[in-house]
Specification:
The complex is a heterodimer of chains A (about 220) and B (about 250).
Chain A (H helix, E strand, L loop, with lengths): L2 H9 L2 H28 L4 H13 L2 H15 L1 H4 L2 H28 L1 H9 L4 H31 L12 H9 L8 H31 L3
Helix pairs in contact in A: 1-9, 1-10, 2-3, 2-6, 2-8, 3-6, 4-6, 6-8, 7-8, 8-10, 9-10
Chain B lengths: L3 E12 L2 E12 L3 E5 L6 H8 L7 E6 L2 E2 L7 H5 L2 E4 L11 H11 L5 H14 L15 H13 L5 E5 L7 H16 L4 E4 L3 H7 L2 E6 L2 E6 L1 H6 L4 H16 L1
Parallel strand pairs in B: 3-8, 3-9, 6-7, 7-8
Antiparallel strand pairs in B: 1-2, 1-4, 4-5, 9-10
Helix pairs in contact in B: 3-4, 3-5, 4-5, 5-6
Classes of the chains: A mainly alpha (about 220), B alpha/beta (about 250).
C-alpha cells in the first residue's frame, strides 16, 4: 500500500468515528442536562447525581467498554454484543457525567435570579428551566462543550479494543500490519485526522458561544 | 364579595436565627397604591417576596383575593401569574429581546394565541414607552429602558396587583425619572400597586398610604402628609429627616 492508499483507507474511518462521537455527544446531552438541573434544584436527590458522576468520570472508558461488551454482552447479547452500540453508549454515559458538570457551572453562571424571575411570571420550576435557564445554559456551556466534543472524538479510538468497527484507530492498527509494515505513517495520519476533526468544531463552538454571549451581554 | 386584592396576616420569615419579617399584616384593596419604605436591610424586599410567594413565609397567611396562598396544595404558579413583580435589579430574561421578555409568559403561562399575545405585548411596551427597544436584548438597553420593560412584563398579564421592589434604586437620577413617569401613569390608571421605594416626592404625589418598615416589621403607617409633617415614632422621624435632607441635596 502506498501513502495515498493509506490515507484514503484511513479517511474511510471518518464517518464511523464521527457517528460514534456525535451519537455519544447527544446521549451525553440527554443525560447531562437533567442531571445538572437535578443536582442544582433537587437537593434531596443530588447524591444520586454525585454518585453517577463519580463512577463514570472515575472508571476509564476502556474498562467500561470491555465490561459492557464482553461482560454484559455475555448475558444480554442484544444490544451489548453490538460494538457500535457499546461504543456510543459507554462514551455517552461518560459524556453525561462530564456534561453534567459543564452544565452545572453554566447554571451557576446564569444565576438564580433568572429562575426567580421566571417563577415570578408564573412558570413552575421545571418550566422555567426549560424556557429560561436552558437556552442560557447552552450559551454559557459552549467552551466546555467544545472540549467535550474533542474528547469524544479522541476517546472513540478506544473502540479499537473491542474490535469490529472500522473507525480511524482500528484502521491505522490494521495498516501497520500490512506490507510494507510501516508503523509510523498510519499513526501520524490518524493523529492529523483526529486534529482535523476536533479543532474546527471546538473552535467554531467557542466562537459561536462568545458571539452569543456578547449579544446578550453575558 | 370583598375588594381586598391582597392581604398578609401575621407573616414571619427567618433566615437562620435572624428574624427578617416579624408579624407583618397588611391589606391592599383594589386601586390602592401603598408605599413601603425604611432603612436598608430591614426586610422590606423579603416581605415583598413573601407576598408573591417567591420566598416562602415561615408562618402567617398570604391571601390573593380570597385564595390563601400559604395553604398546602395551592397552585402557586397559577397564583404568581396573577401577580406582577418588578425587581430591584430588573432580572429581564437575558436571552430574549424586550418583545420576547413580555410575550413569553403570555404565550407559555397564560396560553394566549400568538396574535393576541403579540397585541398585548406591543400594547404593554407602548404603555411604558419602550416601543423603540422592542428588538433589543436587555444588555443593549439603558437601565431605565430595561426596568420599564420589566414593568411591561409585569403589566402585560393584567395582574391583580403589581409588587415593585425598589424599582429605581439601581438607576441614576435621570433614568429614575423615566421609571417614575411610568409608575405615575400606572397610578393614574388605577393600577393596584405595593411599592418598596425611597422616592419621597413620588410617594407624596401618588401613594395613598405609606408604611414605615423597620427591623422586620411595620412600625408606622399613615398618609404621605402624616410622614412628611409629623410621624409618630422617633425612628420614622429620624429616617424622614435624613431622607428629605438627602432628596433636597440631590
Amino acid at each position: 500500500m502506498d501513502v495515498g492508499q493509506e490515507i484514503i483507507f484511513l479517511l474511510g474511518g471518518v464517518p464511523l468515528t464521527l457517528s460514534i462521537s456525535i451519537i455519544s455527544f447527544l446521549i451525553g446531552i440527554a443525560i447531562g442536562l437533567p442531571l445538572a438541573f437535578t443536582r442544582v434544584y433537587e437537593k434531596e436527590v443530588s447524591f444520586i447525581v454525585d454518585a453517577y458522576e463519580k463512577i463514570f468520570r472515575g472508571v476509564p472508558e476502556i474498562v467500561l467498554m470491555l465490561m459492557f461488551f464482553f461482560g454484559l454482552g455475555l448475558y444480554f447479547p442484544f444490544p451489548f454484543n453490538n460494538a457500535f452500540f457499546v461504543a456510543a453508549f459507554v462514551l455517552g454515559l461518560r459524556s453525561g457525567a462530564n456534561q453534567s458538570q459543564i452544565y452545572r457551572g453554566a447554571i451557576r453562571g446564569v444565576g438564580d435570579e433568572q429562575m426567580i424571575a421566571g417563577q415570578s411570571v408564573g412558570f413552575s420550576k421545571w418550566r422555567a428551566i426549560w424556557h429560561i435557564m436552558m437556552p442560557q445554559v447552552f450559551t454559557f456551556s459552549t467552551p466546555g462543550l467544545g472540549s467535550e466534543y474533542a474528547l469524544l472524538i479522541k476517546d472513540s479510538s478506544y473502540v479499537w479494543v473491542i474490535g469490529g468497527l472500522a473507525e480511524i484507530m482500528t484502521r491505522s492498527v490494521w495498516l501497520k500490519n500490512v506490507p510494507p509494515y510501516d508503523v509510523i505513517t498510519p499513526y501520524v495520519f490518524a493523529a492529523i485526522l483526529y486534529i482535523a476533526l476536533t479543532f474546527p468544531v471546538a473552535f467554531w463552538l467557542d466562537r459561536w458561544g462568545n458571539k452569543r454571549k456578547k449579544n446578550i451581554g453575558l | 364579595m370583598t375588594d381586598i386584592v391582597m392581604e398578609a396576616k401575621n407573616v414571619y420569615k427567618n433566615y437562620g436565627k435572624t428574624e427578617v419579617v416579624k408579624n407583618v399584616s397588611l391589606q391592599i384593596r383594589k386601586g390602592d397604591i401603598k408605599l413601603v419604605f425604611g432603612p436598608s436591610g430591614s426586610g422590606k424586599s423579603t416581605f415583598l417576596r413573601c407576598m408573591a410567594m417567591l420566598t416562602m413565609p415561615d408562618k402567617g397567611e398570604i391571601y390573593l383575593g380570597e385564595e390563601c396562598l400559604t395553604k398546602p396544595g395551592v397552585d402557586l404558579n397559577k397564583a404568581r401569574a396573577r401577580i406582577g413583580f418588578v425587581f430591584q435589579h430588573i432580572y429581564l430574561f437575558r436571552h430574549l429581546t424586550a418583545f420576547g421578555n413580555v410575550e413569553l409568559a403570555l404565550r407559555q403561562v397564560l396560553k394566549l394565541p400568538k396574535e393576541q399575545a403579540r397585541e398585548r405585548t406591543l400594547a404593554a411596551l407602548k404603555e411604558v414607552k419602550v416601543f423603540d427597544c422592542i428588538n433589543k436584548y436587555p444588555a443593549q438597553m439603558s437601565g431605565g429602558q430595561a426596568q420599564r420593560v420589566g414593568i411591561a412584563r409585569a403589566l402585560a398579564r393584567n395582574p391583580d396587583i403589581i409588587l415593585l421592589d425598589e424599582p429605581t434604586s439601581a438607576l441614576d437620577p435621570e433614568l429614575t425619572g423615566e421609571v417614575i413617569d411610568t409608575l405615575r401613569d400606572l397610578a393614574n390608571e388605577g393600577t393596584t400597586m405595593l411599592i418598596v421605594s425611597h422616592e419621597m416626592p413620588f410617594a407624596r404625589e401618588v401613594a395613598e398610604e405609606m408604611i414605615f418598615y423597620d427591623e422586620g416589621t411595620i412600625l408606622e403607617t399613615g398618609t404621605p402628609e402624616h410622614f412628611f409633617n409629623a410621624p409618630d415614632s422617633d425612628r420614622a422621624k429620624k429616617f424622614m429627616t435624613r431622607i428629605i435632607y438627602k432628596t433636597t441635596r440631590e
